[in-house]
Amino acid sequence: MAPLDTGYVMNLRLVDPLGDRVGPTPTDFDQIGAYLRAVREHRLLRLDQLAETTRISKAYLQAIEEADVSALPSRPFAIGYVRSYARALGIDGDAAAARFKKETPDFTEPLRNPIGVKHEKTRRNPVIFAMVGLVVTGVVVWNVAQRSLKVVSDPKAPVVSLSGAQAAEPKAPQGAIALGAATPPPADQTTPVAYVTPGMDLTATQGAGTTKVVTNQAAVAAAVPSGYAQSPVFVPKGAVYGASSATPAVVLQARKAASLIVRGAGGSVYFARQLAPGESYRAPTGEGLTADIADPDSFDLYVNGQLQGGLLSGQAPVDKLATAKPAKAA
Q1: End-to-end CA distance of the chain, in Å?
Q2: Which of 57, 91, 140, 190 is a plausible cystine mate for 86, CB 3.0–4.6 Å?
Q3: 3-state DSSP call for residue 221?
Q4: CB–CB of 98/12 below 8 Å?
Q5: Of 288, 311, 281, nearest in space to 299 by CA
Q6: Least confident of 14-23, 44-53, 132-141, 285-294
Q7: What is the pLDDT of residues 136-178, one digit of tens each?
């Protein structure tokens, strides 16, 4: 016996299969989710109860009822959730899933060809291929003929070997080879240029009471003495930095290469340099400066041109150094 035609999918056993209960009718709802919610509320069931029964998240069940496809997972899982939800309510799950697929079609699936339509392949004219082949063959024959005629007309032309063998390399000269004089070594380019603090005058003493600003590294190197000996009276042995000779100041003269940093009252750096042996710095008094020296034994202190001895600490106020007592004569 052939099965009966049940018509539209909305009428496929979506009502209570027992037939003795009064409840919502699927034809009264535009969406399958709204019908499932009506059946659930009619049977006084909560979403959390159905979530526990179907093992489906409550959020997914709510999205099915509200027809929110964007909140559901991928399409195969969503169809399975609708089927399980309907079966938990005692409704035909396959019919519910079929209606869900009809209401939410998948536009990402490729369109299928209509039944009975045959795709005919476009016929390509063989005459075109024959003409293209003739043209290519003619070009190749013409190039070969031109090359053959050139070889016949010029017998002295070099013949290119097709075996890929390279020409013989020239032989090395025989006998002794004369060597020229050695060239001088290149200039040393790795010596860094000495740092000069911006705004500080670089002076070198020329005689008694006269100074000259040294503006290049060659002059500074010339001002540095080859040897340095301690003197009870300040005698410039190299470049003198800082204040001029007319300004009240104390003089710090380096016995050996050492670093000197002079800071202001607020901690700002007035002078910072690695002094060579014999180089000096005039620190003006009354400015609240502080001398910061890594090695106090590397400097001699001069006040009013007289040697006061070495420094006792690596950090001392300049105004306090100006009141230091003169060193006793040996």
Answers
A1: 139
A2: 91
A3: helix
A4: yes
A5: 311
A6: 14-23
A7: 999 999 999 888 887 666 656 555 554 444 555 667 667 777 7
Residue 196: count of CB within 10 angstroms of its CB: 15
Distance CA 206, CA 221 (A): 15
DSSP annotation string for 239-265: EEEES-TTS-EEEEEESSSEEEEEE-T
Report the Cα 182 to chain-centroid distance in Å: 48
Residue with tokens 């997914």: 60
Backbone angles phi, psi at 146, to 5 degrees: -65, -40
Which residues does 62 contact at the CB level (< 8 Å), separation at least 6?
47
**Token pair of 64 as six digits:** 């099915």
| 293 close to 314: Cβ distance less than 8 angstroms | yes
Of 3 and 114, the one with more pLDDT: 114
CA nearest neighbour of 68 among 84, 81, 86: 81
198 vs 202, more confident? 198
State phi, psi for 306 to the nearest 5 degrees: -110, 140
* Confidence check: pLDDT of 69 > 90: no
Residue whose pair of structure tokens reads 């003006």 in the numeric block: 284
Residue among 219, 280, 227, 205 at smallest CA distance from 249? 280
* 41-77 b/e (C-beta count within 10 Å ≥ 16 → b): eeeeeebeebbeebebeeebbebbbebeeeebeeeee
